[in-house]
Design a protein that fits this description.
By secondary structure, the protein is an alpha+beta fold. The chain is 35% helix and 28% strand. It is built from four helices and five strands, in the order E-H-H-E-E-H-E-E-H. Strands 1-2-3-5-4 form a five-stranded antiparallel sheet, covered by helices on one side. Strand 2 and strand 3 form a beta hairpin. The radius of gyration is 15 Å and the shape is globular.
Length: 143
């Protein structure tokens, strides 16, 4: 079985908590361990925040999250001007901003960035799931 959440959201900071809560509720109901859910919440927050800050002239963006077996795949897609992640300058250690890509890379098991032909960018984050003892997720998702 596969569970998918797909949202088209306004490029507004108020959309980020909504997205986090929906995905966290799904992962919690499947019995995903707290630490894994926390990692996913932070990765998702950083990806969405980057869209809100940088994806001009886009008015909206899409978030999809798919859970299959022991893997969560999140895609955050905007219609902005795109970017080259290799050209992002590593932030100064004392800087309060600019750490989003580093955080995503540190927490995700796999991170891919791509620019789309019709403009915009996609960030794909993958995280292996661990379930609490007795959770329904492993049996439900492998059915």
């Amino acid at each position: 079985m596969e569970a998918t959440i797909a949202l088209r959201l306004p490029r507004d900071a108020a959309s980020v908590p909504l997205t986090r809560q929906m995905l966290d509720g799904t992962l919690r109901s499947l019995g995903v361990e707290d630490q894994v859910r926390d990692d996913i919440e932070l990765m998702l927050t950083e990806a969405c925040s980057n869209v809100i800050r940088h994806a001009e002239p886009s008015d909206d963006y899409t978030v999809s999250a798919t859970v299959r077996d022991h893997l969560c795949v999140i895609r955050v897609i905007d219609a902005g001007n795109g970017f080259d992640p290799r050209k992002i300058v590593k932030p100064d250690p004392t800087s309060e901003h600019g750490r989003g890509l580093q955080i995503m890379r540190a927490l995700a098991d796999d991170v891919r960035f791509s620019n789309r032909h019709e403009n915009g960018a996609m960030v794909c984050l993958e995280k292996r799931l661990r379930y609490a003892p007795g959770a329904v997720g492993p049996d439900l998702m492998s059915a």
